[in-house]
Amino acid sequence: MTALRELQAAFRAAILAGEEDALLPLVRPDGLSPRQRLAVYRNNTFMSLADALAANFPVVRRLVGESFFRGAARAFIRERPPRRPCLAEYGDGFADFLAAFPPARALPYLADVARLEWAVGACERAPERPALDPQALGAVPPEERAGLRLRLDEACRLVESPFPIDRIWMANQPERDGEEVIDLGCGGGPPLGGRGRGGGVV
Questions:
Q1: Would you say residue 132 lies in a domain?
Q2: Rounded distance, CA 120 to CA 76, Å?
Q3: Is 116 part of any domain?
Q4: Which domain holds residue 169?
């Protein structure tokens, strides 16, 4: 095995899927056996990626608890490892994963809460752009106004849900005790995620 692509594929299989046979002959023992060295690397990789997910989905983590979250994170990492070097952007697709994750079936609102968290994070990461100038808008000739098309800025996202995910999100912010009783049957709306002075807001 000399081609870089083959080496990378073997490394990925060893770390994410535990398929080590192709890589073991290339790992030198250095105080630990090749298998032990790969196990250490695998553990560190999963811990780092799970920490990144926890940072990007703190409300989901708070709702399900540390053990559940870590288990879900490990399954997600195996299925959808990061494709970008920036871990602050890791987690796209986590909401869809949770929607299909059998242990989360008892929490039907969880995937939508994750969608809202991801939207808030995307708002926080979006580049700052100048706001629409009302005077410039007012200067558009009346006959041209019907052709105007306005769209949300990248720092604004709409997330629809049949559940009151905005209330769930707000009740589980760090400054709240999370003890608020929320009626899941009261329905939801289209929470608007945006960026305020202190970061993402709903």
A1: no
A2: 20
A3: no
A4: 121-126+151-202
